[in-house]
Design goal:
alpha+beta; single chain; six-stranded antiparallel β-sheet; three-stranded antiparallel β-sheet
C-alpha cells in the first residue's frame, strides 16, 4: 500500500535546508528562493522558531539563522561512523606525506558530503568545511565514483548514457585508481580522489586530496594518486 506523504512537512524541511544554505536570510528572500507563497513561508519560519531550530540573526532585523540546537543532531550516521574513525589516521598520513588537505566524503542522496578532514598547514590551502556538499557532476569525487556505479545511475547523473569518451575515462580511473579535477570547478585549485569500495564493489566514500595547482602539478599527480589509491584500498579492506 502506498503511504501518502506530508506536503507541509516536506515544505518545512525545504525551508529549513534553504535557511542553512542562505543564512542570515529574511522571509521575502526565502520566498523568492523557494518560489513559494510568502505567508506560507512565514508560517514555517515561526513553527521552526517555536521549536528552537532557528532564531533571529543578532543585529539583523527580520533575518533568520539556524540556532545552536542543530548541533544536537550533528553526529554521523551509525553506518558511516566506522569509516570516519578508520579514516582519521589515513587522512593524517596523507596530509603529512603530501602537505595538502585530505578529506573523507560519503554519499548522501545525489551528492557527497565532507565528513572528516586533515587540513594542510600551508598558509595558502584549500579547506572544505565539514558537512559541505560535493556535487557528483564535474568534481574529482564524482569522477572517482561514477566508474563503479551501475549504468542506469551513470546515465542519471550524466543526463545521458555515457559515450565512448566517458567510458574511456571510466576505464582509466579504474585502472589507475584515482580521478583528477584540474581547476575545472575552481580556478587555481586541483582535487584528486579515490573511491572507497564496499564489499559489493559499490562506493561507500572517497578519499580526496586538494590544494593549489602550483603545488599539485602534473609531475606530482601519479605519486599523490598512488597514495590516495592505497589509502582507499586500506579503508576498504578494514571495512571488510
Amino acid at each position: 500500500m502506498t503511504v501518502k506523504r506530508s506536503r507541509s512537512a516536506a515544505r518545512m524541511l525545504t525551508v529549513f535546508e534553504t535557511i542553512a544554505h542562505a543564512q542570515p536570510v529574511g522571509v521575502s528572500a526565502l520566498a523568492r528562493l523557494l518560489e513559494a507563497d510568502k505567508s506560507a513561508v512565514q508560517r514555517d519560519l515561526m513553527t521552526l522558531a517555536d521549536a528552537g531550530w532557528i532564531r533571529p540573526a543578532p543585529g539583523l532585523s527580520g533575518q533568520w539563522e539556524l540556532s545552536p540546537h542543530v548541533l544536537t543532531l550533528a553526529r554521523p550516521p551509525h553506518s558511516n561512523e566506522g569509516l570516519r574513525l578508520r579514516a582519521g589516521p589515513v587522512l593524517e598520513r596523507l596530509r603529512t606525506e603530501t602537505g595538502e588537505t585530505a578529506y573523507l566524503a560519503v554519499p548522501d542522496g545525489h551528492h557527497f558530503v565532507v565528513m572528516a578532514a586533515a587540513e594542510s598547514h600551508h598558509l595558502l590551502r584549500m579547506v572544505p568545511a565539514i558537512g559541505i556538499v560535493i556535487p557528483l557532476h564535474g568534481s574529482a569525487t564524482g569522477r572517482a565514483v561514477l566508474p563503479y556505479l551501475p549504468s542506469e545511475e551513470q546515465a542519471r547523473f550524466l543526463g545521458a548514457a555515457p559515450g565512448a569518451l566517458a567510458e574511456a575515462e571510466f576505464a582509466l580511473t579504474r585502472e589507475r585508481g584515482y580521478a583528477v579535477n584540474d581547476e575545472e570547478l575552481q580556478p587555481g585549485a586541483v582535487a584528486m580522489a579515490s573511491a572507497i569500495l564496499g564489499h559489493e564493489g559499490a562506493p561507500v566514500g572517497t578519499l580526496v586530496l586538494t590544494g593549489p595547482a602550483e603545488r599539485l602539478g602534473i609531475e606530482r599527480r601519479e605519486a599523490v594518486g598512488a597514495l590516495l589509491r592505497d589509502g582507499a584500498r586500506q579503508l576498504a579492506s578494514e571495512l571488510g
